[in-house]
User: Fold this.
Amino acid sequence: MHADPMMWVAGIRALYLQALHPRAVRGVMQNSDFRRDAWGRLMRTAGFVGTTTYGTGEAAEKAGARVRGIHRRLTATDPDTGERYGVDEPGLLLWVHCAEIDSYLHVARRSGFRLTDAQADRYMSEHRTSARLVGLDPAEVPGSQAELAAYFEKVRPELAAGPDARVVDAFLQRPPTHPLLVPAREMLWRRVANLAYASLPPYAHDLYGRRAPAPAVVTRRLRATGTALRCVPARVRWQLPPKHILRAMARLGPHTRPAPYKVGRWVAILDGPGRAQRADGGDSGTCQSGGRPGAPD
Assistant:
């Protein structure tokens, strides 16, 4: 699933959602230069996800230890109470984790990536490992869709679109860029950011105070975007994060999922011995925009 190009849209959605937790986003604002090094921060995050997904166990453990070490040294201060707290508080790490995993699952499935409910639950259960790597107790991390829904219901009273969330929102709408790239930002990036925002749950729209299109419209746009992005040849897409997927395929052999069915032919996932599955859910090796949609969200 992490090889799917819609993960980039999901990542932006996760940032929007994470910013709604005042204590969590304050930790970022007081310790990060993301506004000056947005691309670098994005690629470091993508590199961590790529390592923990496709890297060796040793590489994943080292990446997790590095993240835990950084978090241990960082603190934030509540401007209203003067309270100083660590950014590695379990509650804050859990919020960041759940917002990320929810966004990955939601955007992928809603854009047509085929996952059954049982597979979605398995995905969440597997991500208890990535939660452990950043310092969480896996037993305290939601391992199913039902547990995740219960978690969000519990944490909602703590959420608000405060000043820091407004800064994140403004940044995601217009990230700093070279003057020559401003037209591209307005034409391309804004559309992606707006799509990510539109895919947020209704309560997030209410907190930000900005309306979104009707859910059916958002779903159509997600599926159209997913269909278009999945037409980019897989081996081109798999270069980012830095060739993690290609390296894992080479290390694990030809039966790896995902793996190329035949060199030079479009294929996203091996669905079984000798059978390739297109990103739009059909079989064979060519991308067609008219494929059947995936399982509904």
